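Hi C.,

You asked whether I'd gotten around to modeling the 375-residue construct. I have! Everything is below, sequence then structure, no commentary in between.
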Amino acid sequence: MATATAVATIATEMSSEIAPAVRKIIHIDMDAFYASVEQRDDPALRGLPVAVGGSSQRGVVAAASYEARRFGVRSAMPSVTAKRRCPDLVFVKPRFEVYKAVSAEIHAVFAEHTDVIEPLSLDEAYLDVTVNKQGIASATAIAQAIRRRIRETTGLTASAGVSYNKFLAKLASDHRKPDGLFVVTPAMGPGFVEDLPVGRFHGVGPATAAKMEALGICTGRDLRDQSFAFLRERFGKAGPFYHGIARGIDERPVRPNRERKSVGAENTFGDDLFTFEAMREALRPIADKVWRYCEAKELRGRTVTLKVKYADFRQITRAQSSGQPVASLADLDRVAGELLAPLMPVPKGVRLLGLTVSSLVAETEAAERQLVLPM
């Protein structure tokens, strides 16, 4: 973590180097959020390697404390693998309602400074503080105030990145985790990405990183050396984005009202499912969860997608679209059954089922469509 003097120096640089037209973006990322909430609420867990998730043979790690991460335990890792890496790992069942409540407290802190907030998850968000409610000139000072207020309010630590665009702010927040603050000024931006591995770039996933490395593109400098035409030819629509971020350029605005494209839920089962009846029964609480979210957000969707993962981890999806949005939980449950039936009998046991509703529209728009009668 930077010293007070170093942060003050950076803040001065940020203030003097950023022209009024340049955006001031903060990326806030809570440190090991789910696990940190559990350690906060149960003092007996503090200092121990903790994994939030199921400890069963089919369990998956949802989050890991920093003590667990030292053993290589990571989110989305099978619980059996995590336990093998860290025999003393303590598993805690997730409490999502608690995490949502804490997240609301954190977002209330953000709202003290700006309404231009783009949530990425319960524990992560972009903030545009170019113009802010308290009239603070330094984005670094705002980030310091937010981190301090989050600690006072929730007892948790947050890392922050400050820069002139979203890409660099995200990289900066990772730079001094946990409980860190780092600033990338406009003068630093292009050089900051030069020596970073492309796999560290937000927006470059593992498959794309492997493709880049096969082309000899291993670092930001290698990426910058490629022409716009080459990147567009090899990476399609993402090519121009990669061309820009290699030069510290990212024009994406912070979007406070990002349009949600889909709503989904899934469940991994302790024992494989083999019969249609067992799967229909298992799909009902999944459909209920999806529908409750649609109801709460007043959303309706025209496409329902069923996800099936077999015991050998092979995965398939089946989708059904309609001219009219799904109007009720009963409709969603019916479509789920219609998508499942043709897959029977299953070649292997089923370990996971999921449902997603997409092609979303507002409930009022859905009602208007249903009132239009064919001529």
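If it helps when you're writing up: Residues 193-245 form a domain with the DNA polymerase; domain 1 fold (CATH 1.10.150.20).

Thanks,
B.
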